[in-house]
């Protein structure tokens, strides 16, 4: 068999290949076709062109060209004490912040942003003294002037650096995930050391905190963001200190100090007893009057809890979270509905359970009122004595409770647990104040905020030549609905997992079913204490 040499051309190679073909009687046509293809001159020309382009590109050097060592290095420093660093960057920030040393007056690197150009180079470290930027001496310049020079530099930046006496070890990447409980815009933060290095985020966004070495400013990335460079965010302790100061100064009111608008009310008539029969299935519920009574006259124990919470209101900063997916054999997660005025959660909850009573259930409430002739124990209510009810109340067994016409009503935690024990998804609707009591690893609640769609009415102004519609102001009822929704969103929105805007019952039901179907299939972010 002939052997090819290094100088053999493409045409010779193909010709040799065709000569080695051994056609048999069954494949003469196919072999003839292949011989014609390999013998075609146009194929040879094409391959030669491809190889020429390859050789041309391969000879080029695409690495950045480092500059020669400058001749004007200060004589005060040995050659080994000065480091010339050239970083290549595009429009992204350099990824480092600087400060002036209080004792020596030198400009030093304060922090390296994870994933930035400086971090990726591995050539710049915290504590390095900066002497020149692109040949410009910076010893007597303010840090903001130096930052401006760095920001305006494009393509490459040449730094003259005096390395730190003891270079710190490369920081290990940490993976701590925090859900933000507040909005943050670094452009509005006068305390941040470098606004360009700040990371803006929205409430309930999940952040990956990659460095907590600085007790005041953490480095973090937004989960799902394609930007590899981390940004600065206020640390939990620093943000809590700022909120405490604002609260002490009276510029940050607590939810307990504000007048609460009315929340969702299940029935239109105050005396309605919420019989709750739909498609032949009974769906237990609490009357509107019970909710009113609950607000007007809280039990002594619950009232004590409210006052205790008012003494040390929660400061909303961050909540450490972890990924969680429901596993076979685990109890279903509790589904909690909260609603603003006009949401009518009761009818929505009724429809979900009535359509699929084998999969969904509700907690049967307790009452001290006499049982009616058509009612059954444990179906409409758990009928108990006032003494037994008050004993359970004393032992903190009720999630919500109230009094109406000298009768006590309440939803117990045991009633919720009984539904979950049947491997059913339990749906409860509560007032937002009860959410904190449910947010435990036992219930792992998925919280859905339902609010009615409020559309501005349109009217045609009289004598309008253009006949253009203008928006009429909201009527009193719509204003109350909007105020109720805004209050819940502002003070409890950080606890919400999903928001559902209800235009009509069927549309809201369809939206809710989609959410519930994903609950056991998708991965969700939950407080880290629920999965540890």
UniProtKB/TrEMBL annotation:
<keyword id="KW-0728">SH3 domain</keyword>
<comment type="subunit">
    <text>Interacts with HTR2C; this interaction stabilizes the receptor at the plasma membrane and prevents the desensitization of the HTR2C receptor-mediated calcium response. Interacts with HTR2A. Interacts with HTR4. Interacts (via PDZ domain) with CADM1 (via C-terminus)Interacts (via PDZ domain) with CADM1; this interaction connects CADM1 with DLG1. Interacts (via Guanylate kinase-like domain) with PALS1.</text>
</comment>
<dbReference type="GO" id="GO:0005912">
    <property type="term" value="C:adherens junction"/>
</dbReference>
<dbReference type="InterPro" id="IPR027417">
    <property type="entry name" value="P-loop_NTPase"/>
</dbReference>
<dbReference type="InterPro" id="IPR001478">
    <property type="entry name" value="PDZ"/>
</dbReference>
<keyword id="KW-0597">Phosphoprotein</keyword>
<dbReference type="InterPro" id="IPR036028">
    <property type="entry name" value="SH3-like_dom_sf"/>
</dbReference>
<feature type="domain" description="L27">
    <location>
        <begin position="6"/>
        <end position="65"/>
    </location>
</feature>
<feature type="domain" description="SH3">
    <location>
        <begin position="173"/>
        <end position="243"/>
    </location>
</feature>
<dbReference type="Pfam" id="PF02828">
    <property type="entry name" value="L27"/>
</dbReference>
<dbReference type="Pfam" id="PF07653">
    <property type="entry name" value="SH3_2"/>
</dbReference>
<keyword id="KW-0472">Membrane</keyword>
<feature type="domain" description="Guanylate kinase-like">
    <location>
        <begin position="332"/>
        <end position="517"/>
    </location>
</feature>
<dbReference type="InterPro" id="IPR014775">
    <property type="entry name" value="L27_C"/>
</dbReference>
<dbReference type="Pfam" id="PF00625">
    <property type="entry name" value="Guanylate_kin"/>
</dbReference>
<dbReference type="InterPro" id="IPR001452">
    <property type="entry name" value="SH3_domain"/>
</dbReference>
<protein>
    <recommendedName>
        <fullName>MAGUK p55 subfamily member 3</fullName>
    </recommendedName>
</protein>
<dbReference type="InterPro" id="IPR035604">
    <property type="entry name" value="MPP3_SH3"/>
</dbReference>
<dbReference type="InterPro" id="IPR050716">
    <property type="entry name" value="MAGUK"/>
</dbReference>
<dbReference type="GO" id="GO:0016324">
    <property type="term" value="C:apical plasma membrane"/>
</dbReference>
<dbReference type="InterPro" id="IPR008145">
    <property type="entry name" value="GK/Ca_channel_bsu"/>
</dbReference>
<dbReference type="Pfam" id="PF00595">
    <property type="entry name" value="PDZ"/>
</dbReference>
<comment type="function">
    <text>Participates in cell spreading through the phosphoinositide-3-kinase (PI3K) pathway by connecting CADM1 to DLG1 and the regulatory subunit of phosphoinositide-3-kinase (PI3K). Stabilizes HTR2C at the plasma membrane and prevents its desensitization. May participates in the maintenance of adherens junctions.</text>
</comment>
<dbReference type="InterPro" id="IPR020590">
    <property type="entry name" value="Guanylate_kinase_CS"/>
</dbReference>
<comment type="similarity">
    <text>Belongs to the MAGUK family.</text>
</comment>
<keyword id="KW-1003">Cell membrane</keyword>
<feature type="domain" description="PDZ">
    <location>
        <begin position="84"/>
        <end position="165"/>
    </location>
</feature>
<dbReference type="InterPro" id="IPR036034">
    <property type="entry name" value="PDZ_sf"/>
</dbReference>
<dbReference type="InterPro" id="IPR008144">
    <property type="entry name" value="Guanylate_kin-like_dom"/>
</dbReference>
<dbReference type="InterPro" id="IPR004172">
    <property type="entry name" value="L27_dom"/>
</dbReference>
<keyword id="KW-0965">Cell junction</keyword>
<keyword id="KW-0677">Repeat</keyword>
């Amino acid at each position: 068999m002939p052997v090819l040499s290094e100088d053999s051309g493409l045409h010779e190679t193909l010709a040799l290949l065709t000569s080695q073909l051994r056609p048999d009687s069954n494949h003469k046509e196919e072999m003839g076709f292949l011989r014609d293809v390999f013998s075609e001159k146009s194929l040879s020309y094409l391959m030669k062109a491809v190889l020429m382009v390859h050789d041309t590109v391969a000879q080029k050097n695409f690495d950045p060209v480092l500059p020669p060592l400058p001749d004007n290095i200060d004589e005060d420093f040995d050659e080994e004490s000065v480091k010339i660093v050239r970083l290549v960057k595009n429009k992204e920030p350099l990824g480092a912040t600087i400060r002036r040393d209080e004792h020596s007056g030198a400009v030093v690197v304060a922090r390296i942003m994870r994933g930035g150009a400086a971090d990726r180079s591995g050539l710049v470290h915290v504590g390095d003294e900066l002497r020149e930027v692109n040949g410009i001496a910076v010893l007597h310049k303010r840090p903001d002037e130096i930052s401006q020079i760095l920001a305006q530099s494009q393509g490459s930046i040449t730094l003259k650096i005096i390395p730190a006496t003891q270079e710190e070890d490369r920081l290990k990447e940490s993976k701590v995930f925090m859900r933000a409980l507040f909005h943050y815009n670094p452009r509005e933060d006068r305390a941040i050391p470098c606004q360009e290095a700040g990371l803006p985020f929205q409430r309930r966004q999940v952040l990956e905190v990659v460095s907590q070495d600085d007790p005041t400013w953490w480095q973090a990335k937004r989960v799902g963001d394609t930007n590899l460079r981390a940004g600065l965010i206020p640390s939990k302790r620093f943000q809590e200190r700022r909120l405490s100061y604002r609260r002490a100064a009276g510029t940050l009111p607590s939810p307990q100090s504000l007048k609460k608008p009315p929340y969702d009310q299940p029935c239109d008539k105050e005396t309605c007893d919420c019989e709750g029969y739909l498609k032949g299935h009974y769906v237990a519920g609490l009357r509107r009057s019970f909710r009113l009574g609950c607000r007007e006259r809280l039990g002594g124990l619950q009232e004590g809890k409210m006052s205790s919470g008012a003494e040390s209101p929660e400061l909303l900063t961050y909540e450490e979270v972890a990924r969680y997916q429901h596993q076979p054999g685990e109890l279903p997660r509790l589904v909690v509905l909260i609603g603003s005025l006009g949401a009518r959660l009761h009818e929505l909850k009724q429809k979900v359970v009535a359509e699929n009573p084998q999969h969904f259930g509700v907690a049967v409430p307790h009452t001290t009122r006499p049982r009616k002739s058509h009612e059954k124990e444990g179906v409409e209510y758990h009928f108990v004595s006032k003494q037994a009810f008050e004993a359970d109340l004393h032992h903190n067994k009720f999630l919500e409770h109230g009094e109406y016409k000298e009768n006590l009503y309440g939803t117990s935690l045991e009633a919720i647990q009984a539904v979950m024990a049947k491997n059913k998804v339990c749906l409860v609707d509560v007032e937002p104040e009860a959410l904190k009591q449910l947010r435990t690893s036992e219930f792992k609640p998925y919280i859905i905020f339902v609010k009615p769609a409020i559309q501005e009415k349109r009217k045609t102004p009289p004598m309008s030549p253009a006949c253009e519609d203008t928006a009429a102001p909201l009527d009193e009822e719509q204003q109350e609905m909007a105020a109720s929704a805004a209050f819940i969103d502002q003070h409890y929105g950080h606890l919400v997992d999903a928001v559902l805007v209800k235009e009509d019952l069927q549309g809201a039901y369809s939206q809710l079913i989609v959410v519930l179907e994903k609950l056991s299939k998708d991965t969700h972010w939950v407080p880290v204490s629920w999965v540890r």
